[in-house]
Every structure is written in structure tokens, then in C-alpha cells.
User: Which sequence fits this backbone?
């Protein structure tokens, strides 16, 4: 039954994803307006995050940014349905620019393995498909609470070429699998700005606010000796086109001191997010965990906490 429901969701995603681009943009604008009008979680969390990350902004300017975040989030959500269900070569045709590919190729040729840090900026699903077209890779993911949701994600993220992508659950056995892949010279993709479980991270500044940050990436880099590159796909123009970027990670990201490594990791993510705040996932409760003694988490007064 789980597989059947996942397949039905896939068919629905395919129907939406194949709508003409002007229709998708109109639907995205309507969805963003609905979130804002109804005070949906996406809307209130985005505003609270912008208050924390950009305290210098005037309220009117922050409200404009909030609407921009909601429009970009809605558009990416609908566009990703198409990316998941269209042939991958067609999707890769929407990448109009690639910057830093030589860095990626050199790291791959080094034979020490490679860790790709892909923040929640732009369209990371399109980035996954580009990486898979270049080389087999393993991607670390946090499974949804729903079994149907996980089956759906596994279905839509399957690469057109069998065996190109290995999806690894964010748990003990999965981490050991990633380390073995790096030792063998393979490529690992990690979303570095997800809040880890208690005990699996350290607090480090992110836009000047302490945020619980994964230590896993730094540990993998330090133990394996694999280089770390940041990568992202950002939307350009008003159509489906994207620019793909590869950049070196900040110094210290593999430091044995978790405080140094997580600070470097967050600095790399922040540098990317500042390129276009609308394309960063500010609808995520990034600051929910708080350092001891720092008071209540900043979403406590919002519906759902």
C-alpha cells in the first residue's frame, strides 16, 4: 500500500510539474499570497527568521523580503515537482551557467573522496541531478516521519541511470557508509544547514545568532582527508534557467575543534544565503534549538511552536 500511495503522489507531482511555466508562476504567486494572507507557518516562520538574521532592516523592508521569500519558496516547490518527474537530461538543460566546475573536477581527480555541502539555497534537487550526471554519489537525508513520504522521496530522487545515487539515512549506519565511500574516493552530498539532533551538533553563529549546527561534516572531512566544496543552483531571470556554482569551503571546516569547524560551515552557508535572501529556505525553523540559559526558542509564540 505504501508503494501504491507513493506512486499516486508521483503521478500528481508529474501532472503539476508539466504545467506551462506561466501557469506555474501564477500558481506560485497565488500560493505565496495564501500563505501570507492566512498567516501560514511558512509566512510567520520566514518573518521571524528575517527579524533574527537581518535586525537592521526597517519593518517595511523586511515585509517586502518576507513576500519575496514566500514567492521564491512557492515557485521552487512547484518547479521541483517537474524536476522530480521529467527526464533528467531535460532538467539539466535549464542550467544556463556553470561556475567552478574545474574545482569539482580537480577534487574528483584527487582520489581522496569529495564532500559536497549543498545548503538549502536555490534548487538543491537540480544540483543533485547535475552531480549524479557527473559521478556516482551518496546523499545524506533525514527521512520524513511518514513512510509514504519516504517512499515518495526515494522514488522521485532515483536517478535515470541506475546506481548513480545512493540515498543514505541520517543515522549511525548511514554515517559509517558515508565514511567508507569517502575512503574509497567517492563523493558524498550533505545538506549542511539542517538542525541536527541534540548531541550531534554544536552551537555556532549563523547571521549573528547561535544555531545548533551539525558536526558530522567536519568530522567526515577531518577523518577522511576529503576536500569540501560548496555547491548550489540559483534561479536567474524570470524563467526556468539556473546558474550552478561550485566554491571552495572556508578554512577550518575540517578542524578537529567542533567550534571552529561549525563556525566555518555556517560562514560558508551564510555567504551563499546572502547572495539572494529570497532563495534561501527561511521558512525552516533554523534557530529552534537554543544554547542552555539563552531563554525560550524564538518560535515559541508562533502557532505550533
Assistant:
Amino acid at each position: 500500500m505504501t508503494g501504491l500511495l507513493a506512486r499516486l503522489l508521483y503521478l500528481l507531482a508529474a501532472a503539476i510539474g508539466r504545467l506551462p511555466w506561466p501557469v506555474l508562476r501564477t500558481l506560485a504567486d497565488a500560493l505565496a499570497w495564501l500563505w501570507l494572507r492566512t498567516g501560514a507557518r511558512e509566512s510567520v516562520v520566514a518573518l521571524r527568521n528575517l527579524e533574527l538574521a537581518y535586525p537592521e532592516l526597517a519593518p517595511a523592508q523586511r515585509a517586502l523580503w518576507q513576500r519575496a521569500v514566500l514567492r521564491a519558496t512557492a515557485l521552487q516547490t512547484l518547479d521541483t515537482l517537474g524536476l522530480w518527474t521529467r527526464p533528467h537530461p531535460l532538467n539539466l538543460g535549464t542550467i544556463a551557467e556553470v561556475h567552478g566546475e574545474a574545482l569539482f573536477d580537480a577534487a574528483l581527480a584527487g582520489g581522496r573522496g569529495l564532500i559536497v555541502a549543498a545548503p538549502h539555497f536555490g534548487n538543491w534537487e537540480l544540483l543533485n541531478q547535475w552531480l549524479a550526471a557527473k559521478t556516482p554519489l551518496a546523499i545524506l537525508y533525514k527521512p520524513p516521519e511518514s513512510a509514504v513520504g519516504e517512499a515518495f522521496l526515494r522514488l522521485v530522487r532515483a536517478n535515470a541511470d541506475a546506481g548513480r545515487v545512493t540515498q543514505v539515512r541520517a543515522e549511525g549506519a548511514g554515517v559509517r557508509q558515508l565514511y567508507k565511500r569517502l575512503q574509497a574516493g567517492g563523493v558524498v552530498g550533505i545538506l549542511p544547514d539542517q538542525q541536527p539532533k541534540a548531541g550531534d551538533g554544536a552551537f555556532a553563529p549563523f547571521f549573528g545568532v547561535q544555531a545548533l549546527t551539525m558536526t558530522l561534516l567536519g568530522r567526515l572531512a577531518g577523518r577522511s582527508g576529503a576536500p569540501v566544496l560548496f555547491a548550489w543552483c540559483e534561479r536567474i531571470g524570470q524563467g526556468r534557467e539556473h546558474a550552478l556554482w561550485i566554491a571552495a569551503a572556508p578554512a577550518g571546516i575540517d578542524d578537529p575543534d567542533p567550534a571552529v569547524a561549525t563556525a566555518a560551515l555556517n560562514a560558508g552557508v551564510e555567504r551563499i544565503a546572502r547572495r539572494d535572501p529570497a532563495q534561501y529556505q527561511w521558512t525552516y525553523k533554523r534557530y529552534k534549538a537554543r544554547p542552555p540559559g539563552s531563554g525560550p526558542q524564538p518560535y515559541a509564540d508562533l502557532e505550533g511552536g
